[in-house]
Amino acid sequence: MKLCLGMRLTGEPAMFDPEDLAFAAHLGVPAVKICGHDLISRENGNVLHAEDLERIIEQLDQYGLELAVFLLPQGRNTQYWNARLGRPEREQEAEDVRETLRVVGSFGVPVVEWTWSVPDVWGSTRGEGRGGAVVRRFDYEAVKDVGPVEAEEAMDADTMWERMLWFLRAIIPVAEEQDIRLALHPHDPPTPFLRGEARIIGTIEGLQRLFEEVPSPANGLNLCQGTIAEMGVDPIEVIYLFGKQDRINHVHFRDVKGSVPFFDESFVDDGDTDMLEAMRAYHEIGYRYAMMPDHTPRIAGDTPYGHRGRAYAIGYMRALIDAVSRS
Length: 327
Prior knowledge:
Distance between the termini: 16 Å
CATH architecture: Alpha-Beta Barrel
Helix content: 25-40%
Number of strands: 14
CATH class: Alpha Beta
Structural class: alpha/beta
Radius of gyration: 19 Å
């Protein structure tokens, strides 16, 4: 297991804020995840350029940090947006992603995360966590009747499966060639439908089907514990299920209170899951990739990046790792 922090890139050319890197180094966090939308745009060719990745890896090196996870761009009009909608442009977009994987692989980055959705993480509101801390809240009843995204046609489950499997099969040979492990984030929130989209990977059965349809060892998931808990299942059982299949390639170590149709995100020690037992499960399956906090509650006096919330989560995670390692 390798503690990790998601890091933002800013400016032109895109670089890390040195204080963020110092923050990670001070906490003893060895690994970083970056989002591809900070480096890839349609204006610059819709691919990752080697010189851009080299620049930020050199900056990480100055602080003794490694790039452990690269997230492909997500959201409207990003790198493989048309592929999600089954448009003819998906052929070129698949090639753009393959070229990006070649660049990522050439620098030895082990994991590439991706998502598959049109609305993405949508429909949340502001809730209150412990002590009044700001958390994300989701109520399906309030959003279930909202129509498709900007008049895009609704997508049933069969349509979603065809488009997602086409894309995955188009890119996975290059992932294998580059020794990259792909990590698909489950649909969050894992509702049956959201804005006209069937949320096919919002269930354990959907994730299992994904691995059976594309059995490549490069095909895996980002086990976002919060999203798994939102499904109304036991995340610990799911860690063992997919860990024994060697399908866990990245972890968002977080928790929630409740599940679909209504839930609040929580502090890492204040949700419904026994997080000590969750960490023990990762230890027992021999999990070896990055593990990071995500969606940390907003703590009083925090920065826009959430330094205080992230530091709290990292400290708690480190203690759990020590506990299961010594038992």
